[in-house]
Amino acid sequence: MPNRPPKPQIRPNFTNSAPPEVVDPRWILQALGVVIAFAILCAYLTVCGLFSYGQWQLVLQPSRAITQTPKDLNLAFTEVHFGVDASGQPQLDGWWIPGDVPSYPTVIMLHSGQGSMSDALPEARTLHDAQLNVLLFDYRGFGRSGGKHPTEVLMEGDAESALSYVTGLRGIPNSSVIAYGSGAGASLAAKLCTDHKEIAALILQNPDGDFETRVRQDSRSRMVPISLLFHERFPLADRLRSLATPKLLISSTTGPIPANLSSAANPKLTVELAPGQDQAALHGSLRRFLDTYVPQKP
Q: Which Gene3D superfamilies does this UniProt record tie to the protein (predicted)?
């Protein structure tokens, strides 16, 4: 075959190629805005989550310290354990302080959301001196009781466990039980009486509750939707307005009677004690209330 001349090579013409694509800077700004908005949303949701988990710390300040026992006040007592959970172990630690006459009424003490039951011993002494049996105990998250930290729901359950202990293991009828509450414990005592109409009486000393308004004023909670996230409310005023249980309402103030007490339903005995007033006045009011509403069986 005859030799054919080689085909000429065709070289690309770079002068006619399309220019490279240029990213629109507006798209970059939009993408950056989306990333920043997503990061802000994640940060906000994290703040909301942390608030929801730790909100109990805004209204409760538990302590694990037991600084004194009834023995330090020359009171006979027995340490008791109750409130068995799913593990079969009792979670609540308390003191049974018997009165001089076992058949007299029994007080379930629901102490405030600060400290531990050892801080409530002076009030326990006053109740004992009024010839009452006393059960003083710590909620979960307080003192020697189990649990990591308290919440309103857990504390309400602990109050129910205390009533079950008194009526079950101690064999004391609801009609011989008095619910006592101070601080945040007032809400728990009022709920106990609301749920168990047979309870003989309710005693509240310097009660506290209805915490949502107070929390709204806290700078730590102004960034989150309180109405959706806050649930440690400890309602009190509404419960007292509709509760027919006889009530002794004690406040230590030089001002007007707190609104949640003045609006409480009858029957009630309202007592105002000046701060630092001696125990004689308190004991006299307590004695008058018991003689009127809680007759003591010999």
A: alpha/beta hydrolase
Q: What is the pLDDT of residue 139?
A: 98
Longest dimension (CA), the chain: 139
The helix-helix angle for 185-195 and 152-164 (nearest 10°) equals 50
CA distance readout (Å), 135 to 59, 121, 157, 182, 281? 24, 11, 16, 14, 23
Q: In whole angstroms, what is the distance from residue 102 CA to residue 120 CA?
A: 22
pLDDT confidence bin for 282, thresholds 50/70/90: confident
- What is the DSSP code (8-state) at residue 166? I
Going by pLDDT thresholds of 50, 70 and 90, the confidence category of residue 278 is: low
Encoding tokens for residue 114?
């600060």
Please report how many Cα atoms fall inside a 13 Å half-sphere around the Cα of residue 174, on the Cβ side. 12
| Alpha carbon separation from 31 to 20, 39, 44, 274 (Å, rounded) | 21, 12, 20, 65
Domain boundaries, the chain: 57-293
pTM of the model: 0.84
